[in-house]
Amino acid sequence: MSAETHNHLTESCSDPVRCSSLLKDDVLLDAPAQDTSSMEDFIHQSMAVVLEEAVKKATDVREKVCEWRPPEELMELLDLELRDKGESDSKILERCRDAIKYSVKATHPRFFNQLFAGMEPYSLAASFITEALKPSLYTYEVAPVFTLTEDAVLRKMREMIGWEEGGDGIFNAGGSMSNMYAINLARHRQCPNIKEHGSSAAPPLVLFTSQECHYSISKAAALMGIGTKNVYAVPSDDRGKMVPSALQEQIQTAKSKGEVPFMVNATAGTTVLGAFDPLDAIADVCEKHDLWLHVDACWGGGALMSQKHRQLLKGIQRVDSVSWNPHKMLMVCLQCSAFLVRDMTSLLQRSHSARASYLFQQDKFYDVSYDTGDKSVQCSRKPDAFKLWLMWKALGSRELEQRVDRALAMARYFAEEIKKREGFRLVMEEETALSNVNKTAFYLEEAGVGLSRQEMQKIFLALRQLVEQEKPQQCRLWGKILGTESNYIVAETPHEEEVEQELSTEEQTEEEMENVDEEKDPLPRSVYTRPPVAPKEAAGTGANKFVYYVCNKPGQAWVRLPSVSPAQIAVARQINRFFTGRLDSVVLSYPPFPGNEANYLRAQIARISAGTQISPFDFYQLIEKESDEENEALLNNYEINADFEGISASEMVKDMANWVHHAYHILPQGRCTWVNLAANLDTEEEDEEANEPEPEVGPPILTAVSHDAEMFDCPPWSSWLSSTLTPHYALAVLRSVLWPGAYACAHAKEFVNIYIGRGLKCVGEEYSPPLPPPPQEEYPIGSEVTEELDPQVEEEQALSLEGQQEASEGTVESEEDDEDEDDD
Predict the structure, then answer these.
(1) Element counts in the chain: helices (H) and strands (E)
(2) Which regions are flagged for Acidic residues bias (predicted)?
């Protein structure tokens, strides 16, 4: 300020107190740095420009997404040079309009990006507030409101992940920094001395991440001195998901080299393919090797808000840390990035703290745990959580859930529209819980098997209805069983959770008999002990590995079939009965079947699956797990082999060794795993070894089809190519002779199993049901048995008198004997 201006302000001031001046180094210190009136006027004008150009026009579908100019032309239009003399407010407002005009409007309805888009008014208003107040989140005393809102938002986000017991976290400048935080925390947990002594105090550390991961992982490794060569890229499957078995192999390889694994980075929503890594399976590997598991859910974390789609992140509650960017799927204004930790031992603060005494004093007049600045590598930190907090308060969790559901629904719609356009093709089909029924229909049509396109389309819609109702992780068409009155369409889904085992009819009857009050049952109780019954296999294992739903026609309600018992399988093997199409119909047979048609249908499905579910050799591979051999079938000890390269159709038709059974064999006991029923009987120790039964053993999982036994002098399978004109594109088709109606088709790296038939096993040219045992004789008759006529009434009276006389004489004799003893 010049001296003339200072004198003018002093002379024109009438209030001596307000107009007292403080001049230092020719600078007036007690005058306002800016003219308040002109400042407010400019803000009003600039906000009007923002509302008109950046809000109204930028969201108008009739406007352009971007007024594109090449760099050289745009630099000239914007006049980017900075000069000594400032420009007028009107010129600056013109600059604002130009900046908006030539920018990409990410809020425009025609702007499409897989990571962010759309106008969000509440977080925009929150941005205006925080920019106007200019707070910095390092201590509570300088940003009390925003410190508390950040704490509330982090607590709610941890709850959405499933960390009910608590945890820690912080908002920071982007998902890349969140991933870097995760690596630093994992390293500090492994080698806490690195913080003070540097990398020289640590062994050769290595971390593992998917080959589809975000590049920030390798950048963080370089920045932190770990080295990009020490980042193992774990192979992904054809959908971009990390392969857990490959992770296991790479960890073992690293350990064999003397390297020290300390962390695994999984991704929930990869940048290119949008893949969600199998978190549960990866968590199993990490727990086995005691590794920190981080999930980069910067994009996919928003799915946690949706009950419909949160299963995409199944198992996320088991991880150690999560990166989540609400500015992506939840549409918060950029940027809004959270880093969340399950640890509750202040690991986040211990890893980053510098204990700056001029900021983080421990003797303040409030709870210093709200001074969160020492958890961050930043000092000045923007209150980004406030944008999410204000938006969440305005919309609520339900509206945010609808926002996520709408985004994913639009993605599916867009994929369907792309399929219809000529010149476009999808790189990958949408991954849903429902298997590709259209592809199954194509395979069956090429093989000359099965159902019409129209019926398959109806079944597809019915299966979609089932998926929406039951929300299984996977669902596939198992097949169609023909009945005398109506048919059964059968869908197969995995067990999502343990369910209570249903009691069979026999078990219910026995339990009811035990509960009968003895006083109300005067009849004598039988001392007969029933032979032990083989127990059901647990849900999700053996013959009960999957859950099956049936309906008679597409569009009708789906009915869940009960789990199957060994007794039902054992009896189903001895009878040959057509299905009626009514689940509640009685099964009249010998031996008596323990249940109705629903139970019989479930038993036949288990038998058919065990004998006909086959896949190309090496499509699945065994998982090395430490387990008891007796409980092998209780484990899902095989998985898809990511390195499977496919087998030609001609080779699969020629050699049955190229096919394997991937369903567990059912033993004669009716279970996939044998149980020793004699162990529960009360027998003498001497006879235990002599009466020990021989364990039942069946073929192991992934046994080649070529080992199947011949039936009736016929091979168990027949095979052919779907086309001899174009064998290169033909399918390999197999049909079961043992179970007519069971088919398997394969081409390249894909295969399909389906059953369409009566649900009966081939038993030869003629079938005769087993005869019941001969009736037992009421009483054995032999030479020692005599037969006499019943006495007359007079004879009975005479015999009765004789008996009375004998009894009286015996009484007199006994009294005399007693008197003689007394005399002695």
Answers:
(1) 21, 21
(2) 495-520, 785-797, 812-824
Report d(CA 324, CA 455) in Å as an integer: 43
- Record the tokens describing residue 200, joined without a space: 């020289």
Within 10 Å of residue 696's Cβ, how many Cβ atoms? 12
Closest CA to 251 of 632, 618, 619, 624: 624
CA distances from 58 to 97, 106, 332, 536, 786 (A): 12, 8, 17, 64, 113
Residue 386, classed as helix, strand or coil, is helix
pLDDT for position 154: 96
Query: Nearest-CA neighbor of 643 among 249, 231, 215, 213?
Result: 249
DSSP code, position 50: I
Closest CA to 475 of 436, 445, 440, 443: 436
Rounded to a whole number of angstroms, the CA Rg of the chain reads 40
Buried residues in 292-303 as b, exposed as e (16+ CB within 10 A): bbbbbbbbbbbb
Rounded to an integer, what distance in angstroms lies between the CA atom of residue 299 and that of residue 109?
A: 20
Q: What does the pLDDT look like over 674-717, one tens digit per residue?
A: 998 877 665 544 455 556 788 888 899 999 999 998 877 788 99
Separation of alpha carbons 46 and 94, rounded Å: 10
Q: What is the β-pairing status of strands 742-747 and 732-736?
A: antiparallel
Q: Is the pLDDT of residue 724 over 70?
A: yes
Please, where are the H alpha helices in 362-497? 385-420, 437-447, 453-470
- In this structure, which amino acid lies at residue 2? S
Tokens of 324: 């989540």
Please give the structure tokens belonging to residue 608: 């058919």
Tokens of 374: 């020492």
For residue 9, give the 3-state DSSP assignment. Answer: helix
State the DSSP string of 143-210: -HHHHHHHHHHHHHHHHHHT-TT--EEEEES-HHHHHHHHHHHHHHHH-TTHHHH-GGGS--EEEEEE
Bridge partner list, 703: none
- Comparing CA positions, the residue from 394, 425, 313, 370 lying closest to residue 126 is 394
Decide: 605 and 478 in contact? Cβ < 8 Å: yes
The overall pTM is greater than 0.70: no
Q: Which residues pair with 332 in a beta bridge?
A: none
Paired strand residues for 236: 242
205-210 vs 231-234, strand pairing mode: parallel
Q: How far is Cα 233 from Cα 659, in angstroms, rounded to an integer?
A: 31
Q: Which residue has the higher pLDDT, 512 or 120?
A: 120
Neighbours of 134 (CB within 10 A): 8
Q: Are strands 476-481 and 750-757 parallel, antiparallel or unpaired?
A: parallel
Strand 750-757 relative to strand 742-747, pairing? antiparallel
